[in-house]
Amino acid sequence: MDPTTQGKADDPVPGVFRRTGGLQWHARVLRRWRLHQPFRNEIAEFLGAWRPAGSRLILVGSSAGWFLPSRFLAQFSRLTMIELDRSAPFFFRLRHGSALRRAGSSAEWIFGDFVSALPPLLRARRGTPVLFCNVLGQLGLERADYEQWLAALPSMLEGHPWASFHDRFSTVIDGVTDGRDFPDQQGFSSEAPLDSVRLQQMGYAGVWIDHGTGGLLPARVPRRYLPWKITPKRFHWVEAGRVN
To answer: How far apart are the C-alpha atoms of 136 and 43, rounded to whole Å?
Structure first.
């Protein structure tokens, strides 16, 4: 991925219309609900195997939690959400409000760029687990300094259990073939990061966008690669991992 710096702010401003989220994102998710169901199932399985200690959870970029299972969220009594999308609380309550009320869980929202908001929160709440919700692979669309920040993130999170699912590669399926020549998409586990060479070996030819997250997870952390069709023509490989 080689994003330019044009249109990127050092500190993105919260709002309801965003380049990587906002009202247009909620509309897309609702419109593609059935198409996204396999990806939701994969995320539920991934998070179901994560059992961090403690009653609090910090969520970064959860948006409305469209892809998060309520059962996972309800095991925490306090959720702290760092978010740039000001419309997210409404849709989050729509999606998870009933389940969280039954469990006695509460949510607080911090509106701002998590690059600025997360470090003081980590210092104030040592040991609190952190979940990055498909946000780290989009950082290059928001910030010119995304590479430096991603490189510093693992050391910043020392002392905190954390997990992330994030875009690793994405592509547009050939409109001529209408995806018929695109291999069946099956999730898989790997001890090595996914790279462009392996994509070609798997039969996924074509032009792929690298989202710059190849070095995010520590070397010995098992990885799960999840296929995600955002639209019938746009396909992502999402990398998921847990660091305890």
So the answer is: 16
**pTM for this prediction:** 0.89
- For 113, 130, 244, the CA distances from 154, given in Å and listed in that order, are 18, 12, 12
Q: Give the closest residue to 241 by CA, choosing from 171, 142, 154, 170.
A: 154
What element of type H or E holds 141?
helix 139-142
Residue 100 in contact with residue 72, Cβ under 8 Å? no
Type of residue found at 230: I
pLDDT digits (tens, 9 = 90+) for 216-226: 999 889 999 99
User: Is 63 exposed, middle or buried (CB count within 10 Å of its CB: 0-12, 13-18, 19+)?
Assistant: buried
pLDDT digits (tens, 9 = 90+) for 176-216: 444 445 666 889 999 889 998 888 888 887 789 999 999 99
- SS3 state of residue 5: coil
Handedness of CA 116, 117, 122, 128 (dihedral sign): negative
